[in-house]
Amino acid sequence: MKKLLLLFIAFTTVGILSLNVTAKDIIPTRVVLNQANTIGMYQVSGDVTIYKEPNEDSLKLYRIRWSEDEFFPEEIGADKFFTVFLPKKSLALVGVTDMTDDWVEIIYDNSTDKTGWIKIDDPFKFMTWVNFYSTYGKKYGLTMLKSCPEFCKDIKATTEDNSKTISTINYPKKINLNVIRGNWALVSVLDMDKTPKTGYIRWRSNDGIRYFFPDLK
To answer: Mean pLDDT, to the nearest integer, of 42-56?
Structure first.
């Protein structure tokens, strides 16, 4: 009886651990250099087929099926597939590298940058980076990604790299996004010293490397 009880506890624990691994939130926390060429994100449904080319007669690379608690196939996995996965906020987003009227090219494996095409089932599911930041950055504020350059902490007077630095982000409690202007963001920062600071920060580089991200957690 004790052995059966121990086996039951072991299997239950493994099941719980597996569920937590699969269902955990996924959100960028570090600067990612190799995904600068993405143009935005697409909200994927729970069952999508990835094609080699934007044509239903082309080679089928994978059929992806997922729910809040499961993801198939295992060799890809949710961590590699999603750019943002927050079930409680109904966000299941993948990076987009190209698109046509009916198709989006997505990164389906973030560890290898492998791409494929999925058929668009709703054009409103695609968001450019600017639209994504304008929507979710304004709602939740921004967070500074780890390993971003030191100059990202500089708050500028205008949207120019050589403009005057009017303040610096030190230990931010809140970075409110007011507006996106190109690669710059007008923000209001509340630091640990409770001194409000307003000005422009570089939210991404000229070649698309993102230094900040909407604070979705």
So the answer is: 97
